[in-house]
Amino acid sequence: MNQIAPGSSDADQPAPDLAAAVRRLANTSVLVIGDVMLDRYIYGEMTRISPEAPVPILSVTREIGLPGGAGNVVRNLTALGAAVAFISVLGDDQTGSDLTALVGGQPDVEPWLLVQGGRTTTLKTRYLAAGQQLFRADREVTAAIHPKLAERMLRIASDAMAATSVTVLSDYGKGVLARDVPGKLVEMARAAGRRLIVDPRGPDHARYAGADIIMPNRIDLAEATGMPVDTEPAINAAAAALRTQHSFGAVVVTRGNDGMTLVDDAGVRHFPAEAAEVYDLSGAGDTAVATLAAAIAGGSDVETAVRLANLAAGVVVGKAGTAVVREADLMFALSPQRSALRKIVTRDEAAEHVERWRRRGWRIGFTNGCFDLLHPGHVHLLEEARAKCDRLVVGLNSDASVRRLKGPKRPVQPEAARAAVLASLASVDLVCVFEEDTPEALISELRPDLLMKGADYRVEEVVGADLVRGWGGKVALAQLLPGHSTTATLARIRA
Question: What pLDDT shows up at residue 481?
């Protein structure tokens, strides 16, 4: 499919310095050391109460397993195009085996997943229905890994540091970075001339003394310093004290909806949150540290790296579940025209948006067409469709698809222009270009609750109608406005 670039004019292009920094994120190399875990999501429907106890029955429809913790940092780095060496410790259990397959299956990852006999691999299982998390069940141990395993891990880290540009310590307090391991890794990085970034856990930040950058959240900062963090001046003072006390090169305080604060030799700078819509905070810290590490590895200064990390965190909180950020996401977010441009998405991105909306319990609508020379009949169809759902996705035939369907002289407008016009309409929430002659594959992937077409079709003629009705959705036909069609418009132009 021809990709629609994030902007087709100079006015649409992102700031050149940050755009260049984004492009440098790929082809970097980062070493990640820390606690890996398996994030399992179990989705289902609740339709009745158990006869055995006054609790709802979850009828499971699907399950997803993703690497979490330090594994999510790795996922974000590979999504940005970085090559990653990853060191962690697993138990000799099924969860550990599942994680090994998931991590090893990612592109450009060299995994060193050491196994400790008798240890339980961390597993977090979330149960969800109707867009809500019902509860979470955790299985884990937090004891320090065996000392001999720690020594082996340090030997591997010494070699891996020499082959990578930046090291990230992702500490989730599950025992991989226990005792004096962080301090030894800081010394190794300094001896190798490598930058080291820490995502810390717990009140004892002395374990990371001398790190180049440390990224505590507000709670971590309060616990580590014993100082108040309820105001911006208080946060600034606490971050400065933490930096001085443990000789950190820079302290980056992640503040959720309030953005990030950077304290280093140049002073204090605050970066407001970039999120357009906050949906899910899961994994935002992992995304931030991964983006910052890739930016530093790509040659960006600390302030530019923090700006990109803040931007990436703002993007990922608008996605469903433990998601990742890609270069295209960042370029869209940097574009001055991002409100309309972010509606034009790839098929994978459309699936991510629909999943996020469905988890909120929203009704998803879908319609499709060539939409060549948009006219009032099109607008009426889109508005009527949007009135029947909470979010409307428009499938748009690609240029090649239109030519096959309507002949070599069509379309009049290229797909980039047709998508941009559709995206500018308030009734349209997403535009997704498809290459096939029909949208059947796209419909099958998105599984909309409503399929809308014009009344010039019969329901049995609508492509995808049988699919949508098969999973309990509805098919509707919009009334036509007489006298409006692209063919008639073109005929009048020729006349």
Answer: 66
